[in-house]
Here is the input.
Amino acid sequence: MFLFTTPQSRDAQPANPVVNAIRQGAEKTGAGFDYLLKTAQRESALEPDAKAKTSSATGLFQFIEQTWLSMVKQEGPKQGLSQYADAISSDNGGRLSVSDPATRDKILQLRNDPQVAAVMAGALTQKNRDQLATSLGRQPQAGELYMAHVLGARGASDLIRAAASDPNRVAARDFPEAAAANRSIFYDKAGRARSVQEVYGVLAASHAGTQLAAAATTTQAAQGDTPVAEVAVGLRPERARGLVGLFSTGGSREPVSRAVANLWTTPAQGGTRPASAEGAERYYPRARQGDAAASTASDAGKAVTSPLPPSRPNELSGTAAARRGPLDLSSFMSQRTRV
Here is the structure.
């Protein structure tokens, strides 16, 4: 138990390089670490080389080729990838391509690099947030941002609007390509096509309660303020009970057991004081009043008598225990019979 042993220091525990890469990506782009981590967990189970079977999606965040090329083209110069960004070109229809096959392969292989993938995912998150905020007229929720990660910002906006205006509409009809690549989202286990409202619920539930951005925390840290962390529910003052009281100054002041509490009260003549005695009268250890008086009257150089432990409560004394007699466990015993 941690009450009696010293737990291993967090610094001594091996760090997860993938989680560290996601944290660094969040810090560089301003995206929420919690959001990026949960997205990577859902998309790839934190496997950097994860590969989808139904599309070109690859890496921690399952970037498809066109989305990845777009992000490298936009964000590459900021991350020291100007050479790769310059190699990406766009045709009249907006489709991105790389003329040199070897260079194209290197650019796409960067999806398996946790650090590069996390930075690109953070940048894409911020981009999707701005586009959704403009389209919806409000800030998107975490689940809605994840919809943009799966469907693109425009697709997420269409899904959100459809869920509000025509909730029973079959989602796969509006998003056939996404439905083919993500059947578990657009179809239930029986193969029934989900409605836009149901698809919205599935995607929103995956990121429920997720922190979107670390902007507020970053601002506080820059100002030298210590961010206030939310107190765990079990440690709230009104919830403090039992051992929780060891870590909380609030909550119940009643003893767990009066018999145990009486062990730590000042002994009185003829027994022990009740557990409701004032806190000033409780002690461990403390000398009896007679010992204290004797100590006061003694010389300064005279050794002080060691304090005595509290008296045992009557209900726990040997006489009371003997009066009850030994426990009869015969009713709990079962005899084995031979066949």
Remarks:
- The CA atoms of residues 329 and 335 lie 13 Å apart.
- The longest strand covers residues 88-90.
- The chain has a mean pLDDT of 75.
